[in-house]
Amino acid sequence: MRDSGTQSTLLRGFAIVDRIVHADRPLSSAFLAEELDLPKATVHRICQQLEDEGLLQREPGGKRFTGGRRLRKLAMATLSNSVLGAHRRSILQALSQEVGETCNLTVLDGNEIVYLDRIETNWPYRIHLPVGSHLPLHCTATGKLFLANMKPAARRRLVNSLTLTRHTELTITDPEVLEAQLDKVADEGIGYDSGEFLDGLVSIAVPVIGADNRMCFAIAIHAPSVRKSLDELRQYLPTLRHAAARMAASECNGADEEDAA
Questions:
Q1: What pTM, to 2 d.p., does this model score?
Q2: What is the pLDDT of residues 91-113, one digit of tens each?
Q3: Domains contained in the chain, CATH given
Q4: Alpha-carbon distance 14 to 187, whole Å?
C-alpha cells in the first residue's frame, strides 16, 4: 500500500523541479510556493531536501534555486541512453549520408553545449570531437543558436558571465559584437561558425523546436573549409531543417513521426 504522504511529497518535489528547469532565471522558494499554490514551509523544506541531494542548487550568494549538478547528470544520462537514442541516431545518419559531411546533435548544458550524438563522414580529413565533448557557446554554430533563442535578459546575463576565450583569430571576444551577431542568428534562425572555434572548420546549424515552441536541441553540419565553404554549407539548409523537424517530432514532442506527418 502506498504511503499517501510520501507520494504527495514526491509529486510536489517533481512539480518544483519541473517549474525550476523551465524557468529562464533562478526561482525562490517563496515564488515557487505562490506559483504552485503550496505552503511556503512545505516548499522550503522540499527545496532543501532536493538541494541536499544535489538535484537543486542555489545561485552564488543568493537564495534562489536552479537545477543542480546531479539533476543535469540525470538529464544527460537520459538523453544519451543508447536505446532511447536509436531513432535519433538514424536521423543523423540519413542526414550525414545525404550531405556527405559530419553531422551532430547538441544540447545546452549550463554555460556550454555538449555533443549528444555525432555521425562522422568517411573522408580522410576529419576533426575528432567525440560524443560527450563540451564546447563553448560563443564560438560554435549550435552554441550561438542556443544563446540567440534565449529571452534577451537571460541571454545578456549569460553572455556577460561567459569568459569569451579566443580560440582562433576569428573568435568573437567582445560581448557587444557577440550580441549583435546573436541578433542576426535569431532573425535568420541559423547558427554558423566560420572558423571561430577551430581553424579550418566551418559549421551551420538549425534549432530543433518542440511543441511548446522551446528549443530542445541544435542540429548541425560541419566540414573542413578546404572542402566546403560556409556558403556552400548553406545549400543544405532545406535538408538540415527537414532533419530538425523529424528530430522534433520524435525527440521533443513525444510523437511518432508518422503520426506527426
A1: 0.71
A2: 999 999 999 898 999 988 878 89
A3: 4-68 (1.10.10.10), 81-260 (3.30.450.40)
A4: 35
